[in-house]
Amino acid sequence: MPLNIIVGAQWGDEGKGRITDLLAQNAQITARYSGGDNAGHTVTVGRQIFKLNLLPSGLIHPGVIGVLGNGMVVNPARLLEEIDRLAQAGLNVSPERIKISASAHLITPAHLALDRAEEARRAGAGARIGTTGRGIGPAYTDKIARHGVRLEAMLDPEHLGDRIADEIHSDNEILEGVYHRPSLDLAAIAAEYADYARRLASYIIDTSLYLHQKLKEGAVVLAEGAQGALLDVDHGTYPFVTSSSPTSGGALVGLGVGPQFVGRVVGVAKAFQTRVGEGPFPTEVFGAEADRLRGTGENPWDEFGTVTRRPRRCGWLDLVLLRYAIRVNGVTELALTKMDVLSGLSTVKLCTAYTSGDKTHAELPLGPADLSPFRPVYEAIPGWSEDVSGVRTLAALPAAARHYVQRIQELTGVPVSLISVGPERSQIVFAE
Ligand code: IMP
After folding, report:
1. pTM (2 decimals)?
2. Which CATH number fits domain 3-93+207-430: 3.40.50.1970, 3.40.50.300, 1.20.1560.10, 3.90.170.10?
3. Ligand 1: residues whose CB is within 6 Å?
4. Interior CA angle at 199 toward 196 and 202, to 5°?
């Protein structure tokens, strides 16, 4: 009866979509529990590449049901585009397969406009967060301020228009009065949302009740985290975070299920470290070293944002942050992705601790909010030259690569159960 939770153990983009796709083979349901279309998950099956922003990655398996939980914020225009894209790829996208929580919150065009206006204001003050511009922060702000519009309002398309118009009306006052931006067209948006409601209404249910019943019947449910622990609004590198709770606790809140069902908590970490957007990054590297880890951008799996195409900042694997992510999520096993990218480097580095002044820290003294005082302490590990993309067993990995994995296990105290060695579904090493 387990609820297995997949969490990003870094700053997002760890390859969770790929790991979810793999574990979904043995699940009946996959459920997204936080965030919105700020997330971008890529799943490669043969020649087909699926890019998902709102729908859970496990949906690519024909027998799996996808749930969008109450912890999410949903832009209906983008959701419908995504549903249409999957339909074109031949997948069943009926309400029998996709269930959306009535308690998730709607993103409106005003949220997008406010996100961009606020980001421009912060940029002027030298304090950009580097958001994805998808309206995520303003939508969660409305939720917490208790006047957001929940998807249940879409069950009544006749009144939804008025409800949306009210919201846009007050957002227009802020856009014009505070940010000196043009106001949005109330009537056009209200009509647009009434149309979305007609298409989406049949997907909207009480997903908490649905999941509870399925878990009690013995279904395996994969809770699919978006972003990563270091972007969590409570536990991340605040204020350079997203506005939701991508950590495992957020899975329970964001799906409305209790902890009695939790089985595995799989922390997905890249074999190195990346970050999009602003904020401190102690193990960041620059120049040719960064270009080597990032890739050229020719391949969809190179280190360029799936949502924004921004080049990602790259660096060495930071075990201080990884141990922290393991702790706040209760990670029971790690999935290590993109090991193949490290092939060919003469030396790979693991950050085992930080120094600040004359002090050494194995743990973060005050959490990750301010990482700027810290300098990384590295353990240099001899690299391996072999291409590992065809390797399927731990024994077949070069000894130096096995040593790298071994050191990660020793220094985190958590087993590495999966190692991905390429973007394709089959390019995986089951390490246990
Ligand atoms: P927001 O979620 O658009 O508000 O962006 C807040 C921060 O989270 C920014 O630094 C984004 O780059 C980052 N972020 C949001 N979603 C993702 C993601 O899926 N992967 C990586 N970074 C993300």
Report:
1. 0.96
2. 3.90.170.10
3. 11-13, 38-40, 129-132, 134, 136-137, 226-227, 231, 240, 242-243, 276-277
4. 125
